[in-house]
Design a protein that fits this description.
- With about 500 residues, this protein is of the alpha/beta class.
- About 40% of the residues lie in helices and about 20% in strands.
- α8 links the parallel β8 (about 185-190) and β9.
- The structure holds nicotinamide-adenine-dinucleotide.
Length: about 500
């Protein structure tokens, strides 16, 4: 394995990565063969960051073949050597901190605060995952058969295909790539077309510098319409780890059963997180939590607080304090430290949010705070007295739009909170921790946070949703179970008597 410290002089080690122009397949940076390029555009300045030659079906096939070949040796590399690569990646992201944060801001329109959070979670993931290679365990099981030993061995799946979205591109790709590699699998990743750099190519640069052998990680940047279905249908991957919308996730899940080989899927999908404020909540804390949980990254997070459900006893006080605080949020240039709300990722996505706002206004829902888009920056919106059955409350808004819903008592709040097709995350605010826990247990979501925001994902903590928010779990022991397969092996040491 390569040791970058020996092979690089300091100038190389400090040089900014790039340019990003093509694919990373079998350890080689090369042009895609599709014959078209993808312009990567900064969603705030509208300037072009990079132009990438797109992958063809032939490139996708080459990536899977390379991964399949490289995986065999990679699986046999000792745990300590694998750990070194992740620890080296930590050193690299520390050294390249400013470069990475600036790229996240430029490519995904993240505010500086959010980009720093994303950088920190990527670093944390590398650190946490560095311990995974030595944590894989098997079992010896009880048996009634004399002279028999029954074991369950645990090993890598083989090749894992990863499809990631644009909202936390580096974190969400890393959340799948790092444990997949740590467990001895090889990976082909297809980042979102909006964020091919921070969702894939930048990550490949880091692993390459950290000494990951060629072919173990491959990045294909291509149009979903061209390579999307083939990515899942291809016979090589044993598992497709998809993070994105429920609509596309459902399609991926169906394809995984249709190709020449059946494959497992992990589907981390959309959300409609309720933030419930009970009548005994600390009002100031609840307002601050609902605000940050809603407006962080312009509301473009699967766990974002999509509905704020407030008990009638404190509803008026909550609404006036919330609207006052939201009106003070700053929006505009994401590069500036003081900016709270940056641009929406694309014009298409912005148009979709504006259409939902228009429909809500047309339906007579009261808009307490709003404003016109400036470029792709949408000022924060607050709708009050929202009906939970309305399209506004039932759709994943994925923008800086906060619907507030009135609940008549705790039971009603629970019914409202659970009245959604989604079940990813949720939050409840109350001064009574026992009451919070009882309430949390009845929420039909994979994750609930008492007296904190609905947005949280730590590499040592379980992550995942219920209902139409997905299938599967991430992080720590949960991802070890997902990205490995169990193999039952029995050994009969004494001759057995068979019935015939
Ligand atoms: P999306 O489903 O449109 O796209 C996700 C990824 O799938 C992208 O890389 C896209 O290029 C790719 N894709 C689209 N069609 C494909 C196809 N036919 N075959 C293969 N790949 C295809 O989602 P998005 O707009 O990028 O992301 C926003 C959505 O993701 C929201 O619904 C959000 O809630 C969800 N999300 C979920 C989680 C989670 O952990 N549950 C995290 C982040 C985002």
């Amino acid at each position: 394995m390569k040791d970058w410290r020996k092979e690089m002089n300091m100038n190389e080690a400090t040089r900014v990565y790039g340019p990003y122009e093509g694919q990373f397949i079998d350890g080689v940076w090369r042009a895609g063969k599709f014959g078209e390029t993808l312009a990567v555009i900064n969603p705030y300045s509208a300037q072009q960051i990079a132009e990438i030659s797109l992958a063809s079906l032939e490139d996708l096939d080459a990536a899977y073949i390379a991964a399949e070949k490289a995986q065999i040796e990679w699986a046999s590399i000792p745990a300590s050597k694998k750990r070194e690569i992740f620890l080296c990646a930590v050193e690299i992201v520390d050294r390249r901190h400013a470069e990475i944060v600036d790229l996240i801001i430029a490519e995904s329109g993240s505010t500086r605060l959010k980009a720093e959070m994303e950088w920190a979670s990527v670093r944390d993931t590398f650190l946490e995952v560095s311990g995974i290679p030595s944590r894989v365990e098997g079992r010896i099981m009880a048996t009634d058969v004399a002279g028999k030993e029954v074991r369950v061995h645990r090993g890598p799946l083989g090749v894992i295909g990863i499809i990631s979205p644009w909202n936390w591109p580096m974190h969400l790709s890393t959340r799948s790539i790092a444990p997949a590699l740590a467990l001895g699998n090889a990976v082909v990743v297809k980042p979102a077309e909006e964020t091919p750099i921070t969702g894939g190519l930048l990550i490949a640069k880091i692993y390459e510098e950290a000494g990951l052998p060629p072919g173990v990680l491959n990045v294909v940047v291509g149009r979903s319409a061209i390579i999307g279905d083939a990515f899942t249908l291809h016979p090589v991957p044993k598992f497709i780890s998809f993070t994105g919308s429920t609509r596309v996730g459902r399609h991926i899940g169906q394809l995984a059963m249709q190709g020449p080989t059946l494959k497992r899927v992990g589907l981390e999908l959309g959300g409609n997180a309720p933030c419930v404020i009970l009548d005994d909540a600390d009002l100031d804390l609840a307002v601050r939590g609902a605000l940050f949980g809603r407006f962080l990254h312009q509301g473009q997070i699967c766990m974002s607080t999509n509905r704020i459900i407030v008990d009638a006893a404190i509803y008026d006080d909550f609404v006036s304090l919330f609207v006052e605080r939201v009106s003070k949020l700053t929006y505009g240039d994401p590069n500036l430290m003081e900016t709270n709300i940056g641009p929406i990722i694309s014009k298409r996505q912005l148009d979709g949010i504006c259409a939902k706002i228009r429909e809500a206004k047309d339906a007579g829902i009261h808009l307490a705070l709003g404003g016109e888009p400036q470029g792709q920056v949408l000022p924060p919106h607050v709708f009050v007295d929202v009906d939970n059955a309305s399209a506004l409350a039932q759709s994943e808004l994925f923008g800086p739009v906060a619907p507030i819903i009135k609940a008549h008592g705790e039971k009603h709040a629970l019914i409202l909170a659970n009245e959604t097709e989604f079940g990813l995350s949720s939050a409840v605010f109350t001064r009574d921790e026992g009451r919070g826990l009882r309430f949390a247990k009845r929420l039909q979501t994979g994750m609930t946070h008492i007296n904190d925001i609905s947005v949280a994902d730590s590499p040592n903590t379980m992550f995942g949703g219920e209902k139409n928010s997905g299938i599967g779990r991430f992080n720590s022991d949960w991802i070890i179970a997902e990205f490995t397969c169990d193999h039952l092996i029995t050994m009969q040491s004494e001759p057995r008597q068979y019935p015939f």
